[in-house]
Amino acid sequence: MSGGDMAKPLLGHQITEGDPSIAPAAGRTIGVLGSGDFARSLAIRLVCSGFKVVVGSRNPKRKAGLFPSAAEVTFQVEAVKKTDVIFVAVFREHYSTLCGLADLLAGKILVDVSNNTEINHHKESNAEYLASLFPACTVVKGFNVVSAWTLQSGARDGNKQVLICSNNQEAKRTVAEIAQAMGFTPVDMGCMSSACEIENIPLRLLPAWKIPIFLALGLFLCFFTYNLVRQVIHPYIREQKNKFYKIPVEVVNTTLPCVAYVMLSLVYLPGVLAACSQLYYGTKYRRFPDWLDQWLQHRKQIGLLSFFCAALHAVYSLCLPMRRSHRYQLIETAIKQAVEKKMNIWVEEEVWRMEIYISVGIIALGLLSLLAISSLPSIANSLNWREFSFIQSTLGFIALVISTLHTLTYGWSRAFDENQYKFYLPPTYTLTLLVPCAVILAKVVFNLPCIQQRLLRIRRGWEKGRYVKFVLPSATGEYSSGETSSNV
Ligand code: NAP
């Protein structure tokens, strides 16, 4: 599965809350084999959801105190006898120790909740292995994507989806009922061959973040090297000045806003490219190339990383005056002025420039925070489509424009000062402006009435050069049909 796939809803057919074929399950007795973290959380959750719970342990006396008093903690044999649905909350390597219970378990539903420590660790999935050990049982894979913590804290605080698969529809439905009664959303993943995929899900490390993180790191590296050459290497080579102390704070702090600003523009650039493609081909039904699809799917992560860099830039900037080097420079400047008997060093233009760029920067950061907060699932779910689109699209674009103002007021006239071209390299801010300005310009062009109208028509299904059937009423009141080009 590609990284972008994780941005999609977690697969398959959701057995939704409104499904009338799912009968209420609460009240029935559920068995749990094992008395560890998962078994304990599961038992608490089942009891809270109205189930009777019987826990099977090798040492019930010792473990009983860890469970809610409503749950019965007994020997494995006793627990298995009392129920038809049993959660196996035991690690795969201990499945074989349960083989002595095989006769008692025959005909019952076993829910395999186990996870592995590595992706595709074993040839067959844990659930298939369990099924091979207990051929007279019906095995259902499920609940492994839910942590013990989520089970205890409630579905609202964690992932609500419970992925389920089994070769037996009836058993799958029974487990889905239980999941639903516990407040989770059961998702039917099909037959047992999906178990391996379900077991791999909790082991994936930020699959949707890989591309955005590499992008951010790549940009950081490029801008860092560029700034290092301009701010440290150039003075060292040309003036033999040691400015290496600037690397940890100043160079990083001039790099972070570059990354944040370019990343923010990269959130909106794929939308521009998609619109260009739709305008060029005159249809919205043509698939975008894969790279553009992937890019569109990663916009949220790219935006959040942009916010992260912007927030770091704000903290770094606030800390600049705390540095000892800064204090030395201030004192040095003051001494120089005293020696030169300069009384007034106030430069009105510089004062205004700084006041404006700081204020504009704060507003941009505020807007980025709003975008980041509204992309959290709990907030995004509480917004309707128009509200979400207004925040992410309109406010996001305004954030890009304000960030551009921040960059321009920071740079001011430096681009026209030849002293700023170190080794003929232009000031960094001029480079960062390229992509964002192109995006802003494209957005302005798309808002021209003639282009906006065409784009709107395309997005409502109109296609260039495609003939559409029309039906006209004739003078006699009858209808006549014909064909015309929708281009006309
Ligand atoms: P755990 O705390 O180590 O508990 C495992 C339990 O297995 C023990 O308490 C033990 O209970 C029982 N067991 C039965 N036969 C055993 C044997 N021969 N040797 C050792 N223990 C034996 O582990 P856990 O975190 O609850 O995880 C249990 C299962 O849930 C695992 O398959 C895990 O992958 C899965 N899971 C856990 C989480 C989580 O957040 N913890 C999340 C998803 C899935 P008795 O001593 O009472 O028999």
**Residue-averaged pLDDT, rounded?**
89
Strand order of the largest sheet: 4-3-2-5-6-7
Task: Label the overall shape.
Answer: elongated
Number of domains: 2
Q: Share of helix among residues?
A: 40-55%
Strand content: 5-15%
What structural class do you assign from the helix and strand content? alpha/beta
- Which spans have pLDDT < 50 for at least 5 consecutive residues? 1-12, 16-23, 474-488
Counting DSSP E segments of at least 2 residues, the number of strands comes to 11
Task: Give an overview in words.
There is one protein chain. 53% of the residues lie in helices and 10% in strands. It is α/β, with parallel strands linked by helices and 488 residues long. It folds into 2 domains: 29-203, NAD(P)-binding Rossmann-like Domain (Rossmann fold, 3-Layer(aba) Sandwich); 209-338 and 348-460. The strands form 3 sheets. It has a 6-stranded parallel beta sheet with strand order 4-3-2-5-6-7, sandwiched between helices. Strands 1-9-8 form a 3-stranded mixed beta sheet, with helices on one face. Strands 10-11 form a two-stranded antiparallel ribbon. Helix 1 links the parallel strand 2 (29-33) and strand 3 (52-57). Helix 9 packs parallel to helix 12 (299-319). The model is unreliable at 1-12, 16-23 and 474-488 (pLDDT under 50). Residues 34-39, 57-59, 63, 89-91, 94, 97, 113-115, 144, 147-148 line the site of NADP nicotinamide-adenine-dinucleotide phosphate.
